[in-house]
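hey so u asked for the seq, here:
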Amino acid sequence: MDGQLMRVELPGGNPRQARPAEPLFRTTLQPSSAVDQFTVSNDGQRFVLRRPVGELGTDQAPLSVIVNWRGLAERAPR
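ran it, structure tokens below
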């Protein structure tokens, strides 16, 4: 596969009326049924793609994920 992320319109949510697929943008993702590789925001305007850290460019910082941030915020001095 070429890593192209595609879009398909489903009028009324009916798969039987699916429109032809249209390309959105190219990614480095490889097809996999075992791993969720991307997610779409509720408004459909943003994507989060899963990529190995080795694919980061030299001008990009790694992403840090803070787990239980609400608990940390509750304990923070005010």
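The chain is about 10% helix and 20% strand. The chain has one domain: 4-75.
lmk if thats what u needed
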